[in-house]
Amino acid sequence: MDDHEKKRQSRETAENEEIRDYGQVLMAKGKQGHQIHLISIIGEVEGHECLNENTKTTKYEHILPRLAALEDDSRIDGILVLLNTVGGDVEAGLAIAEMIASLSKPVVSLVLGGSHSIGVPLAVSSDYSFIVPTATMIIHPVRMNGMIIGVPQSFEYMDRIQERILSFVVNHSRIDYEHLKALMMDTSQLTKDIGSILVGKEAVEKGLIDEVGGIDMALEKLHELIGS
Fold first, then answer.
1. What is the pLDDT of residues 101-116, one digit of tens each?
2. Which H or E run contains 9?
3. Does residue 220 contact residue 211 with C-beta atoms inside 8 Å?
4. Nearest to 197 by CA among 139, 155, 141, 131
């Protein structure tokens, strides 16, 4: 085996490990000559506490350093974010969303399956967002696990976290504050919770997502943003 073949196999092994361990891959330069990095946010967004090994997770300690490296990498022209998440840790999710929103490189997001709870800020953090026709977005108030001390300070703290989420979504989408809060507090849609579920084009009609489309349209838009 010559050196060229060894390097090729080594590169393929590294790429396979990147996909397996982090859900990320550097896409080869396509017909438009742009270098695109793909990041997937799937399962539950894991924060400061480790979830059990049977839970599919996206770890924020993997995503944040990679986003910082991509911002500083002159070889990367744009970033595609694929989302299929049930939500998860609020602080971790907001940290990732803020990092994506602050990137100077073009970013396009695509919701596949679902982008629930803290997945909503993640979906709207990009420069342009897509959702496939059957994907869902669930908007609901902030939940807290474990023992909660029933004092005004606890409720004020939860309200402040909720305001951070509302403000971020409003500032990075076309929906207005009052409409978003009404969706969050709706009591008619979810049997065991307060909130709203939006399917495909409903998310676009409400102003959360820019357009209904799949991977072809997402890549086309990303190339367009890179070119401009």
1. 999 999 999 999 999 9
2. helix 3-22
3. no
4. 139
CA-CA distance, 209 to 137, in Å (whole number)? 10
Coil/strand/helix, residue 210:
coil
Encode pLDDT of 141-169 as tens digits.
876 655 555 555 556 666 678 899 999 99
Return all residues near 92 (Cβ < 8 A) that are at least 6 apart.
Answer: 45, 46, 47, 48, 60, 118
* SS3 at position 122: helix
Residue-by-residue DSSP string for 51-107: PPTTS-EEEHHHHHHHHHHHHT-TT--EEEEEEEEEEE-HHHHHHHHHHHHT-SS-E
The dihedral over CA atoms of 14, 18, 19, 22, expressed in degrees to the nearest 10, equals 170
CA distance 155 to 195: 18
Phi, psi of 126 (to 5 degrees): -80, 175
The secondary structure of 153-202 as a DSSP string is HHHHHHHHHHHHHHHHHHHTSS--HHHHHHHHT-SSS-TTSSSEEEETHH
pTM over 0.85: no
Q: Which residues are catalytic?
A: 117, 140
Instruction: Report the alpha-carbon distance of residue 210 to residue 178 in Å, rounded.
Output: 19
Neighbouring CB atoms inside 10 A of 129's CB total 28
Structure token pair of residue 152:
């005004």
